[in-house]
Amino acid sequence: MYRTDGKRAAGDLVFLAAVIIAIILALHIVFVLLDANGGNDIVRTDADWAGWLATWFKDLFTPDNPKLNVFLNYGLAILVYLAVGGVLRRVLNDALA
């Protein structure tokens, strides 16, 4: 249950940031898998942001299929961001409790 005195706000904001990052990365995966128009402003902007957010994970796995490459590398980035965000949420909320 959420507290109403604001003590959990810091941890929850960190996790919210991780979720937003995960959504950006997941959108990029969906756009690539569905062959979205790369000239579209939304697709191009999402690809730019996702590329920057997944910098450490790009080409971690290098299968021959480019769609599988994006799925594996960006999918791993999603998992790491959510795991780190969840741990930081717990640590911050416990520290501020």
UniProtKB/TrEMBL annotation:
Regions crossing the membrane: 12-34, 71-92
Protein's UniProt keywords contain Transmembrane: yes
Keyword Transmembrane: yes
Keywords in alphabetical order: Membrane, Transmembrane, Transmembrane helix
Highest taxon, organism lineage: Bacteria
Protein's name according to its UniProt entry: Integral membrane protein
